[in-house]
Amino acid sequence: MIKCLSAAAVVASALLVAGCQPEGSGTTGAQADCVPSTGGSVNLYTARHYASDDAIYAAFTCSTGIAVRKIEFRAPELLARLQAEGSASPADVVVIADAGAMDEAANAGFLVPFDDATIDGRIPEQWRDPQGRWFGIARRARIVAYDTRRVQPGEIDDYADLASPRFHGQVCTQTSDAVYNLTLLSALIDRWGSERALEWAHGVVANMARPPQGSDTDQIKAVAAGQCQVAITNHYYFLRLAESEDAADQAVVEHLALAFPQIDGRGSHFNLSGAGLAANAPNRENAIRFLEFLTGPQSQTTFATMTNEFPTATGTELPADLEAYSHHPADPLPLASYAEHRAEAQRIFEQAGWR
Amino acid sequence: MPLLAARPSPLRTGAVIAALVALIPLVAVLITAGGQATDSLTPETFWRYARTSGALVLLVGLGTGVIGGLAAWLVALHEFPGRRLFSWALVLPLAAPAFVLAYGYASLFDVAGPIRTAWRTAFGWDPPFEMRTLWGAALVMTLAFYPYVYLTLRAALLSQSSSLVEAARTLGLSRRQAFMRIALPLARPALAAGMALAVMETLADYGATSYLTVQTLTTGVVRAWAVFSSTAEAARLALPLLVAAAVLLWVERANRKAVGEAGQARWRGIEREHLGGVKGWGAAAYCSLLILFGLALPLGWLIHLGWAGDHDIARLVSGARNALGIGVVAALVTTLLATVVALGTRHDRFLPRLLSLGYATPGAVMAIGLLAPAALIWRAFPSTASSVLMALTLMVLAYAARLMAAALEPIDAGLQRVGSSVGAAARTLGEDAIGAARRVDLPIASGALFTAALLVFIDVLKELPATMILRPFGFDTLAVMADYYAKDERLGEAAWPSLVIVLVALPAVLWLTRRVSHSRPGDPT
Question: If you average pLDDT over each of A32-36, A102-106, B188-192, B252-256, which comes out highest?
């Protein structure tokens, strides 16, 4: 019996291995109207891992003939690897889905400033590092999903409302080490000062329907299940559920809507995915072409359609469901503040008992 | 140090060199921990993590000891319906990484998951089944790790000489008394070894605990690293884990020493107690439940989720090929290194214990420790930083450093069973130390070497942090893919690589079971 089964399992894995003979290197692209390979490449260290990005890399290879070689990391590992490699690093381009970590990479000297009129022309100053070391390629709003049957649209105009007794026992959220919670609190510290930020954290903890747990999608589903009335979430998780063909996902968002709270009327909190040129880029020219490509209309539209992120380039055409939210203003927080207050944000969370 | 004081012999020199592979990252962790940290966690938070880690370890240790121990006792010493099937099927959950079980259970028992939704619909209130708690995590990890206890204890019970128990019976002890007073004490080191493995896995686990939102020292390490960008603080948080591991290993060693010679083996079929009627079916039901909850339920749910999720066959296949390739190479290298260490330190128990610490060290910390020596190489020879071969070599060494313990345990046990007299006889017949090892010890212990290689292979399939930080361009493994999809909150997509991990690990697990089943000469199962 065991012999049979293990033989079957061996056959299964042999098939797996056999079925994987080179299927043509995926990055060079086999479409007929692509530019033939130049033999050149760009080495990418990225902490983003979305299908939209793979589509963009393939499009870049197709239109330039430059292959994209990438390693996907989580942000701290990416920074640690760059640190360890030092000047020997083969990285040309660094991409991270968090403005705080981008800023940290820049401050650690892993990125170099470069002048590029194309990029400066496409991306508004608000989404570019003042020292020119990195710029935003896509934006995500950290906002609130609410139960339309139990909450009125006007009840969450400001992040402060999440801490009001109105929502006692009705707030669902992730843990405090979720990076988007950290940047949100960093922004609040910057705008409100530490004392008020701590008060706010205490208030939200008092309002929690359950101990912080799970992902953003789990928070949205908990609202649908009636465990809480409001959930702190990134906007695109909600849109992903709303766009899903799965009936169960559709049912989740049936009685839910997004509210865009503001910080003292300045706008909602947006985090940035950033890109920059690595300090020791061996393929500098290719890297700059790649960075320009990320800000081009094709890439920007792909971020918007496939990942439901807000583009950073002005004038990008948006899909209808994202367009519906595009009028919400973003708090013009200086990019340096994202990283600056992060350690303090973690301390405030701990002090408030936000686990 | 006894090791260095001893007269240098080729085996010893080899052992020291092999040991360096595992020691260098540990030393690097200590050096890193001495570095300056800008910010740190508050003491309250640290103690909260430590308490959670302690409670989790206690629960999982007890849980695996009781659940796996009971299963081993039933299967090894009793006859009941389906026993032969269960004797190997009970090991199967070893093929599923703990984080895969966590995906399945967290989603099944989520407030919006199928079970609680159905319950609310039927009864109008929300049942308090919550997996994202300490208890939930303890349950998930007990189910994931009980096979370690089952495997070691069952092997020990099977390899016990029947003459001791028979002697006890002739002296008037009942079957139960003979088990409690003879068989169990003799098998205690095996029980302790299995529990030690389970507990060390628990201490080092990040994937399952973080997914279940249980905040342990290990998740704290990652938090310190990510939030304060401080590898020093992360390494410092790992120090209590190293101490805990050292204590565990010391306890296990002390246990082993106390046993001594377990009598001459006399191989005869074990007389199994027949469990009739309700008892027999109860035993069968117990074993079935373990397989149901350890494998069938969470995996079945993931298959259901995966059905609806997208998948990219080409990526899955290349991920599987990468995982398989590096897994085999790492298993061979680690087993080779562990064998050299085991042969060179047969009378010195200190070094192998020390090397085993890597097993209980969180992967993220080992990754930090591994980057330091890697950095030296990269900076000295800049061209190696972009070399695929170099990156793969570093990965293999990383696995060897981290998984040395998993290989050393069975190899040590195998060599101990050979005993020293056979090797001594070979020496008197003119073989030198290496020749005796090659021609006598290793052939006899070859089964143990194979077991070690399989254990390492299975562990490499699940490994995440070292893989992620050291890999070359374009090198995804199944575990890395599963983690990305899960982090991106796409469980349906994460289900695919998760299930392929199980599929790839399954043959190894089945071989492992077969080895254990045949560990008693003349025993048909």
Answer: A102-106
Cα(A54)–Cα(A59) distance, rounded to whole angstroms? Answer: 9
Give chain B's radius of gyration (CA, Å): 23
Nearest to B143 by CA among B82, B68, B194, B53: B68
- pLDDT, position B517: 62
Q: What is the DSSP letter of A161?
A: G
Nearest to B26 by CA among B330, B445, B508, B398: B398
Q: How far is CA B65 from CA B73, B407, B514, in A?
A: 11, 21, 22
Of A75, A88, A179, Cβ closest to residue B382: A88
Q: What is the pLDDT of residue A318?
A: 93
pLDDT band at A10 (very low <50, low <70, confident <90, very high): very low
Half-sphere exposure of residue A305, counting CA atoms within 13 Å on the CB side? 11
In this structure, the strands spanning A134-147 and A171-172 are unpaired
Work out the pLDDT band at B256, boundaries 50, 70, 90. Answer: low
What gap in Å lies between CA B294 and CA B189, rounded to an integer?
A: 25
Name the CATH topology of B46-261: MetI-like fold (1.10.3720)
Q: ipTM value, please give it.
A: 0.86
Taking residues B467-490, report their average pLDDT.
Answer: 90
Cβ <8 Å between A355 and B215: yes
Contacts of B503 in chain A (CB under 8 A): 9, 12-13, 16
Q: Are A93 and A277 in contact (CB under 8 A)?
A: yes
Which range has the worst mean pLDDT, A148-162, A272-286, B321-335, B455-469?
Answer: B455-469
Would the pLDDT of A14 be above 50? no
| CB-CB contact of B214 with B52 (8 Å) | yes
Cα B431 to Cα B344, B426, B444, distances in angstroms? 16, 6, 16
Segments making up each domain of chain B, as ranges: 1-34+310-489, 46-261
Query: Burial letters for B83-112: b for 16+ Cβ neighbours within 10 Å, e otherwise?
Result: bebbbbbbbbbbbbbbbbbbbbbbbbbbbb
Q: Which of residues 266-325 of B touch A (CB under 8 A)?
A: 308, 314, 317-318, 320-321, 324
Tell me if residue B3 falls in helix, strand or coil: helix
Residues 129-158 of B with CB under 8 A from A: 132
The residue of chain A nearest to residue B132, with distances taken between CA atoms, is A213
Cα-flanking dihedrals φ and ψ of residue B130, to 5°? -135, 120
What number of other Cβ atoms are within 10 A of residue B401's Cβ?
26
d(CA B150, CA B376): 43
CA distance A354 to chain B (A): 11
pLDDT of residue B267: 54
Contacts within 8 Å (CB) and 24+ apart, B7-14: B9/B344, B9/B433, B10/B433, B10/B434, B11/B340, B11/B343, B11/B344, B11/B433, B11/B434, B11/B437, B12/B344, B12/B345, B13/B344, B14/B340, B14/B343, B14/B344
- Spatial separation of the C-alpha atoms in residues A101 and A103, rounded to whole Å: 5
What's the sign of the alpha-carbon dihedral A211, A212, A214, A220? positive
Q: How confident is the model at residue B358 (pLDDT cuts 50, 70, 90)?
A: confident
User: Quick check: B119 contacting A, CB < 8 Å?
Assistant: no
Given this model, what pLDDT does residue A55 score? 95
In this structure, which topology does domain B1-34+310-489 adopt according to CATH?
Answer: MetI-like fold (1.10.3720)
B99/A contact by beta carbon, under 8 A? no
Q: Among B431, B265, B432, B408, which Cα is nearest to B341's?
A: B408
Token pair 């595992």 is found at: B22
Structure pTM?
A: 0.89
Q: Do the Cβ atoms of A21 and B332 come closer than 8 Å?
A: no
pLDDT tens digits, B210-232: 999 999 998 888 888 888 877 88
Structural domains of chain A ordered from first start: 36-139+270-323 (3.40.190.10), 141-267+331-352 (3.40.190.10)
